[in-house]
Amino acid sequence: MNELIADRFRIERLIGRGGNGNVYRGVDMATGHMVAIKILKNDALLDDPTLLTRFLQEAEMLRQLNHPNIAKVIANFDMGDEHYLVMDYIEGGSLKDLLGKHPQMPIDRILQIGLDVADALTRAHRLRIVHRDIKPSNILLKNDGTPCLTDFGVARMVDSGVITRTNDLIGTSAYLSPEVLTGEIADTRSDIWSFGVVLYEMLAGRRPFEEEQQVAILVSILNKPIPDLKKLRPDAPPQLVSLIYDMLEKNRERRISSVRLVGAELEAIIQGLDTSIRQSLPAVAFSRFQPPPETFSRRKITEEEKAVLNFKRRIGCMIIFVLLLLTLSVVLVAILAYTDAAILETVTF
To answer: How is 82-121 classified by DSSP, letter by letter?
Structure first.
């Protein structure tokens, strides 16, 4: 391609394609460094008028975040009808790619990636930014293995009047939290749920809720218990298993309340491991890290809260059932239309 834009960035080749735009690898001629250049599609802007606002919002959020484990924005600008976002180029692939090669990752690697992602999310949450789309494909890996959180395109500011694509179901279904599925607004605890799914996946080699149909995945998230992680990964440290269960608490009022606490627990596990112990993890006994009681306390759910939670689950199931009926109706209409056309063709012949 070899196109120069803004008299500074040379576009070299396409590296990613999406519904809203394409991503190219390029070179910053001022520094000689590789960059990733995201370009919005004009037809996507026609379909979704809020897309440009979200595109600019992503650039601004990345500037505010400025963290070693978050993809760095270099520039954003317009040229004619084209809209560009230039970021660091991270060439080590994504966590999704790594999981494709090594579904069950080594414990120490899980802890390292988990701690860095927790640190990145802590920075975002401190600035009252909710990512809303934590998943392996949005965690990129540098050549040295350092993870970088990316794609803040559907993020939102907590307590802000600006919410991207209001009332839409934002995120990837397998990583969505129960409260999001029941129509509640995502908050920092929703990110913790999605992060918990990622940790579970790295440990078990599969997501906690895996079904063939998307609707079935949503129903499972709302109603099914978390599959026994200890059976899927017997060598997992009990403390790590317990932490993941705390992150995947369906009622967010009982979920671990801060990603900073998640990072503290991950760090406590890491500090209990030295190089020799990492080679014989199953033999290690881990003690539960307890944060200060004034920071986090676990309480029993009341009967009133149980009733509210059950009501929300019923509402969520009803919404999913309606979506399923609509999907079946569309399929049925398509079948009938095809049948009518075939009969008409036969009669004409």
So the answer is: EEEEEEE--TT-BHHHHHHH-SS--HHHHHHHHHHHHHHH
Q: Which residues carry out catalysis?
A: 133
> 69, 67, 14, 64: which is closest to 39 by C-alpha?
14
- Number of helices and strands in the chain (H, E): 12, 10
Contacts of 327 by beta carbon, 8 Å cutoff, 6+ apart:
215
Q: How far from the centroid of its chain's Cα atoms is residue 20's Cα? A: 18
Q: Which residue has the tokens 């317990």?
A: 242
H or E element that contains 3: strand 3-5
Q: 74 — phi, psi (to 5°)?
A: -100, -40
**Could you count the other beta carbons within 10 Å of the beta carbon of residue 256?**
24
Digit-by-digit pLDDT tens for the chain (349 residues) are 789 999 999 999 998 887 678 899 999 999 999 999 999 877 777 777 778 887 887 788 888 888 999 999 899 999 988 889 999 999 899 999 999 999 999 999 999 999 999 999 999 999 899 998 999 999 999 999 999 999 876 666 554 433 344 334 555 789 999 999 999 999 999 999 999 999 999 999 999 999 988 889 999 999 999 999 999 999 999 999 999 999 999 999 999 999 999 999 999 999 885 433 334 333 333 333 334 333 333 445 566 656 666 666 667 667 777 766 776 776 676 666 666 555 555 555 5
In 3D space, the residue among 271, 196, 276, 204 whose CA is nearest the CA of residue 236 turns out to be: 204
- Of 80, 41, 81, 85, nearest to 60 by C-alpha is 85
Residue 57 contacts residue 105 (beta carbons within 8 Å): no
Distance, in Å, from the CA atom of 31 to the CA atom of 137, rounded to the nearest integer, reads 28
> Closest Cα to residue 124, out of 102, 155, 89?
155
Residues in the chain: 349
Q: For residues 231 and 175, what is the distance between their CA atoms, to the nearest angstrom?
A: 21
Residue whose structure tokens are 């930014």: 129
